[in-house]
Specification:
The chain is α+β, with helices and mostly antiparallel strands and 443 residues long. The protein contains 13 helices and 18 strands. It is globular, with a radius of gyration of 22 Å. The relative contact order is 0.16.
């Protein structure tokens, strides 16, 4: 797959290994689409993911696309997000999220373009190559890939970064079911939530409401069974907005309609007609939004085994409520690339790479996946602490309870800025060293 996770992995390997005519390592990217494009709009990079991109030499290329007020070099505590209870005529503050570092917002296409420009020219990208299935050969030394276009290929290690509807995941889980056991269903299931997405010209917002906070600050507007995320991208020229509307009792059900479809503004505006004015200003400018049925997968017991590894949405497709799905794909790719590079230099068996990767990434990826779901419940007053909030526009929710909500949101999210993936990487490399030592001792 040629999404954020697959390209980050290829860039990291380009950074760590000589990928050239000497064929130290050969990398091929197989992408189902006829061209490399990004569906969607905004992407947030929290400090864990941003530090990885810095280590890969991408900081300068990305920084020029930041919006005013976003400082990637600022290490002082500053405002990253504002949370408001907005499902009432007069909105109320929930929490101002302040931390040292930055939550940086980009257009997805910008991130993809920067990644593509940092690929080794020796990496080949095969477009219009949708995977049908794969087969581990009898000697387990290689894998044969079968594509819809009738072509085949072989590889030593298959890295499945093929997204929400991952073919690699489906066959991987089936292949590792215990004898007599029915393989668990890994198909995406509907979260019960629709997201209405649009990019608004910032000038239109500024003309109607000068000084609107979403022009310079990421904001999450919260309410019963709904919430809206808005933040500036493309150097502040655009406000990226996602309006979420949920039916909690439908979580986990099969959604039979299209995954996304263009709709009219009139399909969105009525949901927020009783909300505070600054939110209505944004929604009124969602002229031609797209409606996305938000899907996720059940947490996986394993991300890797033998010569097959899952990363990104293929491993832990999650709801977007922490803005960290792409960040987790970047972390997967970074750690996996270092393990592969170490194995190439020292001739470590592939099985050791996947064992260590799984031990490090599966617990953390699943933790973030679960935390993201919890955040969606918190934003919409559906978490266990707020079951008494039954109706939209309930103004009886006291300020101290809103502060409690803000504290819960922060505690579930703090890992994103207070910890680093470098600790996980060093732990992974140490585990690989231990396996090498044990192997040499046995030999």
């Amino acid at each position: 797959g040629g999404g954020i996770g697959g390209l980050t992995l290829a860039v990291a390997l380009s950074h760590l290994l000589p990928i050239d005519s000497n064929n130290v390592i050969e990398i091929e990217i197989y992408e189902a689409a006829p061209e490399l494009t990004q569906v969607g709009a905004g992407i947030t990079l929290w400090p864990r993911a941003w530090n990885i991109f810095k280590n890969l030499g991408l900081e300068a290329a990305l920084a020029r696309h930041l919006s005013p007020g976003q400082d990637h070099q600022n290490k002082e505590p500053h405002l990253a997000f504002q949370f408001r209870k907005s499902d009432q005529e007069k909105g109320a503050s929930i929490h101002d999220l302040v931390f040292a570092g930055s939550a940086l917002s980009f257009h997805r296409a910008v991130v993809q373009d920067v990644l593509l420009k940092h690929l080794s020219p020796s990496i080949r990208c095969q477009l219009s190559s949708r995977l049908l299935t794969y087969k581990e050969l009898d000697d387990s030394s290689s894998i044969e890939l079968f594509f819809e276009n009738g072509t085949t290929a072989t590889c030593d290690i298959l890295l499945g970064a093929d997204g929400l509807k991952s073919v690699v995941r489906k066959h991987f889980v089936a292949a590792h079911a215990l004898p007599g056991q029915v393989a668990p269903n890994t198909d995406p299931v509907w979260s019960g939530t629709f997201a209405y997405r649009y990019m608004i010209d910032s000038k239109l917002v500024a003309e109607e409401m000068p000084g609107h906070r979403a022009l310079t600050t990421p904001v999450i507007y919260c309410g019963k069974n709904k919430h809206v995320v808005a933040y500036p991208i493309l150097q502040g020229r655009v406000v990226n907005i996602a309006a979420y509307v949920s039916e909690p009792h439908k979580e986990g059900t099969l959604y039979e309609g299209p995954a996304f479809v263009d709709v009219a503004k009139e399909d969105v505006v009525p949901f927020f007609s009783a909300w505070e004015e600054e939110l209505r200003v944004l929604v009124q400018h969602m002229d031609k939004p797209s409606r996305w049925a938000i899907h996720a997968i059940a947490p996986l017991e394993s991300y890797a085994s033998g010569p097959v590894t899952l990363l990104g949405d293929a491993a832990h497709a999650m709801t977007p409520h922490q803005g960290n799905g792409a960040g987790q794909a970047i972390e997967d790719a970074y750690i996996l690339a270092h393990l592969i590079a170490k194995a190439v230099r020292t001739n470590i068996p592939i099985s050791s790479i996947t064992e260590v990767y799984n031990a490090i990434r599966q617990p953390f990826g699943n933790l973030v996946q679960n935390a993201s779901r919890t955040h969606g419940l918190l934003y919409e007053f559906n978490a266990s602490h707020f079951e008494d909030v039954k109706e939209e526009g309930d103004v009886s929710v006291r300020p101290d309870r809103l502060r409690e909500l803000g504290e819960l949101i922060t505690s579930e999210w703090e890992y994103a800025w207070s910890t680093s993936a470098e600790g996980d990487l060093q732990k992974a490399l140490a585990m690989l060293e231990q396996q090498m030592a044990a192997s040499q001792s046995d030999g």
